[in-house]
Amino acid sequence: MSAHVAARWTTQTRRFEKNAATREPAWVKAALMTVALLFFGLFLLLPLATVFAEALRKGWQVYFAALAEPDARSAMVLTLLVAAIAVPLNLIFGLAAAWAIAKFDFRGKQLLTTLIDLPFSVSPVIAGLIYVLIFGAQGWFGPWLIENDIKMIFAVPGLVLATVFVTFPFVARELIPLMQAQGREEEEAAIVLGASGWKTFWYVTLPNIKWGLIYGVVLCNARAMGEFGAVSVVSGHIRGRTNTLPLHVEILYNEYQFAAAFAVASLLALLALLTLVIKSFVEWQGRQSMHTSQNISEVIQ
Amino acid sequence: MKSPRVLPGFPLALGYTLVYLALIVLIPLSAVFLKSATLSGEQFWAIISAPRVVSSYRISFGISLLAAAINTVFGLIFAWVLVRYRFPGRRIVDALVDLPFALPTAVAGIALTALYAGNGWLGQWLQLAGIQAAFTPLGILVALTFIGLPFVVRTVQPVLEDLDIELEEAAASLGADRWQTFLQVILPVLSPALLTGFALAFARAVGEYGSVIFIAGNVPLVSEITPLLIITKLEQYDYVGATAIAVVMLVFSFTLLFLINGLQIWTHRRHGRITG
Fold first, then answer.
1. Fewer CB atoms inside 10 A, N or C side of chain A?
2. What is the mean pLDDT of residues B97-125?
């Protein structure tokens, strides 16, 4: 949402509520509010509360014991490792794709943009399957990998690949519309004035896209750490070796260790809440900075 | 804009984009189609039309449609309340709408199961009413409704925010009551966004795995979803079988993606014309 829309919308909301012609009867408003808040409580708030209530059902001691257990700790390390590889890879890709698509004209641009979004419409299970078909024992490179004693599937590289696939579009799809909206004039001016390509990118482009970039990275990271279906296919569920946090939650749950499962799950829920806080903050910041640039461009005009 | 290129880095950026896209997405996805091409037409058909597989389509697609429809209705009400009304805690509610995006699906799965199981906070009341939600198709519906909600809200919300008040004032001054204004002025403007949100929620629900398998019970022919069937086949080392079913799902997803893209372009045009 652009800044001027946001500003107009606030004044509009007031106008909607003041003006009898554009105001619903009080009972309609009350009914809509009740339905929405009931739905909110039932479908969003209660599941979230359940995670923490179940996690603490047997007390803090059991809670911390579940988190300190060696398998849980190695799952945390593996989750961090996978995200630490997958997120930067997709960040670099997002920057390259957005630079090419937003700053240049070429044929097939629309098709390329659609293809970048492709992983979002593929079931996570299939995202895992495709790498099994390529690197698994029966796969394309299977025999060669076995001969050379390289493990891809049921090992960390497979987890990373599956995670890269499911988080592929996050950064690119934030940056492309943002950089398209900002146009090319500022960068062109910098180049004409003698700045190098990297300098232009570093001092002109990057400050402009800062908030969109953070937004994309935060969402990408949340999905990378929380992915379940795709990594479940390629993991092999080897305890302490190829279990990420979500897979560890599944194992504990299937062993009826509910308190421990929810304790580990509560970590992931906290990560989700943190993600939402950062996301809201970034949206607010982005709106602020756009507001300033809006004012500046109005002054110039 | 047909000016000569001033900015550098086009070959590098585009080249990197294409190579990375091909290596991570396109070549691996093509493996599914190449693998299933080793099957004859009859073999392929026999796999994808086996009774257990067909019933999994019915469950996955049927319940996903229902969940997307529920999300369209409640998502519209949700977006309306967030845009048009001010109430304490509105910003928190607004931020938490994205919870299903941010919460890992496995966590959502076990939380919903605990909530709707016979001894859960909601399950015990449902059980008194004679309804069993967890470990039945109803449980799948609950999970798919949960994960699909943000899609409708987040596609409808910006369009609603952008709607000019003058339109509604004009309708009112021409004698329309609020309901008529909604049906004949607001709803037509919102309908492309509603349809897009519906399609996005549907597409996500069909492929969903993590939040469903805990609550579904996974009984073949009753509550077994198609993605789970792919995993089951893989665990039995039936790679070809898993791949054939994956082809069906991919063809469906790509068709839907194509439709959604068309819808979004249409929304932009309509939306641009009305507010611009």
1. C
2. 93
DSSP string, B221-255: TTS--HHHHHHHHHHTT-HHHHHHHHHHHHHHHHH
In this complex, the residue of B28, B91, B257 whose CB is nearest that of residue A134 is B28
Q: Which of A21, A100, A276 sits opposite B95 (nearest CB)?
A: A276
**Are A32 and B80 a contacting pair at CB < 8 A?**
yes
Cβ contacts (< 8 Å) between A105 and chain B: which residues?
1-2
With contacts defined as CB-CB under 8 Å, which chain A residues touch B33?
none
Are B30 and B254 within 8 A, CB to CB?
no
Rounded Cα distance, B200 and B100, in Å? 14
Indicate the angle between helix axes A70-103 and A170-182, nearest 10 degrees: 30
CB-CB contact of A209 with A108 (8 Å): no
| Pairwise CA distance, residues B254 & A123, whole Å | 11
Q: Which residue of B has its CA nearest to A32?
A: B77
Check: CB of residue A17 under 8 Å from CB of residue B90. Answer: no
Q: Considering only the beta carbons, identify the residue of B1, B99, B106 that sits closest to A228.
A: B106
Of B201, B228, B202, nearest to B213 by C-alpha is: B228
Q: CB A186: neighbour CB atoms within 10 A?
A: 14
The partner residue sitting opposite A35, judged by closest CB among B77, B108, B210, is B77
The Cβ-side half-sphere exposure at A264, using a 13 Å CA radius, reads 31
Q: Which residues contact B53 (CB under 8 A, 6 or more apart)?
A: B47, B226, B229, B245
Least trusted range by pLDDT, from A225-234, B3-12, B101-110, B210-219: B3-12
Residue B33 in contact with partner chain A when CB distance is under 8 A: no
> pTM for the whole thing?
0.90
What value, to the nearest 5°, has the Cα angle with vertex A2 and ends A215 and A32?
90
- Percentage above 90 pLDDT, chain B: 63
- Cβ pair B178:A23 closer than 8 A: yes
pLDDT range class, residue A292, cuts 50, 70, 90 = low
- DSSP helix/strand/coil, A251: helix
Structure tokens at B260: 């959604």
Q: Is B129 exposed, middle or buried (0-12, 13-18, 19+ CB in 10 A)?
A: exposed
Q: Which residues of A touch B110 (CB under 8 A)?
A: 249, 253, 261-262, 265
Interchain contact B22–A (C-beta under 8 A): no
Contact A126, B32 (CB under 8 A): yes
**Tokens matching residue A123:** 């079931």
Rounded Cα gap, residues B133 and B137, in angstroms? 8
Give B4's pLDDT tier (boundaries 50, 70, 90). Answer: low
Distances (CA, A) of B242 to A121, A130, A154, A207, B61: 18, 11, 18, 47, 18
Interchain CB contact of B165 with A (< 8 Å): yes
